[in-house]
Amino acid sequence: MADQSLLTESVVGWSIFSFILLAILAFCWFYIRKYQSRQESEVVSTITAICALAIALITSALLPVDIFLVSFMKFPNGTYKEWAANNVTRAQIEDSVLYGYYTLYSIILFCVFLWIPFVYFYYEERDDDNINKCLQVKNALKYTIGFAFVCVVLLLIGAFVPLDPPTGQNSTQWQKVQYLFQELGSSHGLYALSFSISTLTLIGMLAVITYTAYGMSVLPLNLIKGTRSVAYERLENTEDTEDVEHQIEKLKSKCSDGRPLSSRDRNNLRELESRLLVLRRRGRHLEIAEKNCCTKVGRALRPVKILLGVSFILVALLFTIALFISNLDKALHSAGISSGFIIFGTNLTNPLNELLLVLQPVFPLDYILITVITVYFVITSMAGIRHMGIWFFWIRLYKIRPKRTRPQALLFLCMILLLIILHTSYMIYSLAPQYVMYGSQKYLVQPAASFTPGNATSDTTRICDANAPEDQCTVTRTYLFLHKFWFFSTIYYFGNWAFIAAFLVGLMVSCCRGKKSVIEGEWVLRWCLPDSSLLST
Question: Can you tell me where the transmembrane regions are (predicted)?
Answer without folding.
Answer: 12-32, 44-73, 102-123, 143-163, 190-214, 306-325, 367-397, 409-429, 485-509
